[in-house]
Design a protein that fits this description.
alpha+beta; Outer membrane efflux proteins (OEP)
Length: 423
């Protein structure tokens, strides 16, 4: 019976680290004492690969989640052991000097396989759930990293526009003195320059806030924390059906739901073995005249008024609930992948259009208009209009770059792995 009840689970912390290395190229801190992964230097900024490593290495949320694996392993160890025998000792009273009773609960032996199977599948479900939580943390860190990158790009654009506006205001002041433009025109240029300075200041505040949010998610100080990007190349995605197939086989929450169904079915079988409670009993007595005498027998619970209907009913309801939850998760996976893929491809198309056509044309138009204003060939209205359009286009381009990064993070979380590992 002990051998039959040897169901087990290999989803421990080592398994989690192996899965994370395969899926995301990084692992948890484990028992290591280092505050940062050995290969990471935050002094020159952190790229997306480093932010993934830091999220898994330092996140206190993940540390708390890892204790669920430890608790599940402890529960499995407890479930795989039969109930302890009970020994009762009684002192002398009357002619009997002493008595001892040994009670062995036999029902725990035939319940052992189902109980161990249920606990092992629970451990599997919890391990997969913790893995999914780790992937969520990676996604969240990547989104915050993209937000910091957007804030930095926005600050660069605002600073450049502020510098151009200040230069236009300086030129306008000179031309107003010699009577080439009116005082009203100069006042408009000055107001635009002050507005640009205020927009730059707001962009700096946004950058500081984005840096603080990322630092908090990584349990780090925000001083001098900057986001860098090793590559802005947009990877090619797979067909929708292929992505769904990958997710069905690798999404941890799908597998967790499947193991939850198995665990519920095992518990239902366990509840059915609890209809009868049987124990073996041995009793020994000692007195001065007869010496040692023994009695052996057993104890059985007679299922007259109930054969564990409550436990069986609850277990069957849990099987139905777990099966329905599995269907809910499966449908959610399809929805998430469909939305994430569409969002990713739309961001890629818009970004390509801006980089190859719109942005290039506007930057050249701004250069020509500024040069024309300096020589007096163009009015300030032309320059301001081109300046406004260029600033909006550059900000939109920065937003599209960030959107493509966010969409990629959401898509890879939706399939449960990096796109590079699915090919």
């Amino acid at each position: 019976m002990m051998l039959v009840g040897c169901a087990t689970s290999h989803r421990d912390r080592a398994w989690l680290d192996d899965e994370l290395r395969e899926r995301m190229g990084a692992a948890t801190r484990g028992g290591e004492a280092e505050e940062l992964p050995p290969e990471i230097d935050v002094g020159n900024g952190i790229d997306e690969t480093e932010v993934v490593s830091l999220a898994l290495w330092r996140s206190p949320v993940l540390v708390a989640e890892l204790t669920r694996i430890d608790a599940a392993r402890a529960s499995l160890d407890e479930a795989s052991r039969p109930a302890n025998p009970q020994l009762t000792l009684m002192g002398p009273l009357g002619p009997i000097n002493a008595a001892a009773t040994l009670l062995v609960p036999l029902e725990s032996l035939w319940q052992l396989p189902q109980r161990t199977e249920a606990s092992a599948r629970d451990a599997d479900a919890i391990g997969e759930a913790v893995l999914m939580r780790a992937l969520d943390l990676v996604r969240d860190a990547r989104l915050l990293h993209a937000e910091l990158g957007l804030a930095q790009d926005r600050l660069i654009v605002r600073a450049a526009m502020s510098a151009v506006s200040a230069e236009l205001a300086r030129i306008g002041e000179v031309r107003a003195r010699v009577g080439e433009i009116s005082g009203l025109e100069f006042n408009l240029l000055s107001a635009d320059a002050r507005t640009a300075i205020d927009a730059e200041d707001a962009a700096e505040t946004d950058r500081q806030n984005a840096r603080a949010r990322l630092a908090a998610s990584l349990a780090m100080g925000s001083d001098e924390l900057t986001a860098v990007f090793a590559s802005d190349a947009v990877p090619a995605t797979l067909a929708l059906d292929a992505l769904i197939d990958v997710a069905r086989s690798s999404r941890p929450d799908v597998r967790s739901a499947e193991y939850a169904v198995s665990a519920a079915a095992a518990r239902a079988g366990w509840e059915r073995t609890r209809v009868v409670a049987l124990a073996a009993q041995a009793e020994g007595q000692w007195n001065n005249t007869a010496g040692l005498s023994m009695r052996v027998g057993g104890r059985i619970e007679l299922p007259i008024f109930g054969a564990n209907p409550g436990g069986i009913g609850r277990a069957d309801a849990e099987v139905a609930r777990a099966s329905a939850q599995l269907e809910v998760v499966a449908q959610a996976v399809i929805m998430e992948i469909t939305v994430a893929r569409a969002r990713f491809e739309q961001a890629a198309r818009s970004r390509d259009a801006f980089e190859n056509d719109i942005l290039t044309s506007l930057v050249e138009a701004l250069r020509v208009a500024t040069s024309g204003f300096e020589t007096g060939e163009e009015t300030y209205l032309v320059v301001l209009d081109v300046l406004r359009r260029t600033a909006e286009a550059q900000l939109r381009h920065a937003e599209l770059v960030a959107e493509s990064r966010r969409a990629l993070a959401e898509l890879e979380r939706a399939i449960g792995a990096r796109l590079e590992t699915t090919r």
